[in-house]
Amino acid sequence: MLIRFFIYGLLGWAAEILWTGLPKKRPIDWNLEAHTQWWTFPIYGQMATLYEPLHNRIRHHPWWVRGFLYGCGFIGVEFISGEIARALIGKIPWDYTPKTRWHFRGSTRVDYFPLWFGFGLLMEPIHDYLVRLTPLLKRAKDE
User: Where are the domains of the chain?
Assistant: First the structure.
């Protein structure tokens, strides 16, 4: 499970860098600057312990039910993580307050629900692949 924690952390960072690097304003800034935060690595890494069991339990449900649950779950995890960060360091590293009116306490954005809906469905085959790959990584490490 520790191997998948690190893989999910890295995948989350990569996805965040791609997302923040997409041009959002006109004219397009062709530098395509992107960013992430150190704080998000363990948040993405925890998907190994939260997302995987959820996916295993709901995989027999229709895609739209699974997507709805993923959207709610990601928003919930983002909110809880933001509130924990606020309690520990006094601020939320990704504070959404100045960026949109669709935020909740700056910790999460409800307008990202469709994004999380789709991201959860996209992660399903990745999760299945990682479950098959992990024993091979472990065996290679032991040899």
Answer: 2-142
Spatial neighbors of 30 by CB under 8 A, at least 6 apart, are: none
Which of these, 120, 135, 140, lies nearest to 8 by C-alpha position?
Answer: 120
How far is residue 52's CA from residue 46's CA, in Å, rounded to a whole number?
A: 10
- For the stretch 50-78, pLDDT in tens is 889 999 999 999 999 999 999 999 999 99
- Contact predicate 65/117, CB 8 Å: no
For the stretch 81-117, pLDDT in tens is: 999 999 999 999 889 998 889 999 999 999 999 999 9
- pTM, two decimal places: 0.82
